[in-house]
Amino acid sequence: MIQRRPLVLGAAALAATLALGLPQFAFAQAKLKVAAVYTVPFEQQWVGRIHKALKAAEARGEIEYKATENVANADYERVLREYATAGNQLIVGEAFAVEAAARKVAKDFPKTMFLMGSSGKPQAPNFSVFDNYIQEPAYLTGMIAGGMTKSNKIGMVGGFPIPEVNRLMNAFMAGAKEVNPKVEFSVSFINSWFDPPKAKEAAFAMVDKGADILYAERFGVSDAAKERKVLAIGNVINTQDKYPDTVVASALWNMEPSIDRALKLVKDGQFKAEDYGIYSTMKYKGSELAPLGTFDKKVPADVVAKVKAREAEILGGKFTVKVDDGQPKSSK
Length: 332
Description:
Elements: H1 4-29, E1 32-37, H2 45-59, E2 63-68, H3 73-85, E3 90-94, H4 99-108, E4 113-117, E5 127-130, H5 135-148, E6 153-158, H6 163-179, E7 184-189, H7 196-208, E8 213-216, H8 221-228, E9 231-236, E10 247-253, H9 256-267, E11 287-289, H10 301-315
Parallel strand pairs: 1-2, 1-3, 3-4, 4-5, 6-7, 6-8, 8-9, 9-10
Antiparallel strand pairs: 10-11
Helix pairs in contact: 5-6, 5-10, 7-8
């Protein structure tokens, strides 16, 4: 009896400890509460990639996910605060036009983690930033466009001339110039993130000036290309299934590496303010060149060979695509 008594006490103590610790244990195993605030509709390509990655985590049973789309800039801070107050552990969104408001909310909720699309720096302790650093596949699509144009004129329609757009356009232009030094560019910005009719009209004007390939940074451009029977290059998402005879190639953005990293760090209590930009590069599978698909046999073999060689050099660290955030200009 003397020898068994400590064992009995030990078992009782263990049971008490487990009982006391049960709520904490249950919380640790619970799904993370994640919210997202978007200023544009889910279907918009940039936001669509973030939404897709979060929906995948929801489908795996890792998170409870709530999101609000089409939030006006004036309402952004209010919606952020509502989600933070509701106990969401991670809030994702794009803060480009609402930087001050988003960073203010992050300061007021230091125990809530934020992962926001931003041109700015991380803000300690809980405000991380990300961006679509997909200039590498954009360069490769430029090489394809340079090899496919017959008029040597390429039209480019963008949303706003901000770093996130500029760097992709500049990379595309550099890739096209590598393959075809004679190519000329017509560059236009519609000053909107989602206005397909306006993008379409801008693209029509470029075709009228001789462009036989259009860089579709915005929705609406591929529609113009299809109507005028010219080619288009996609950006961020692959729309070739909708435009099988129009969209030659696309630079894809995969947000999964960034989202999955953030979720793991929040779950482990290790999330901190950092720049997630690198996780959008090809090395981390954050971006890629879409398969040529319907254009597999239509792109000249020598161009395909050059693109594959460049792709291998990028992945092997032997070639670096320059990040140029300056506003691209039309050829003189």
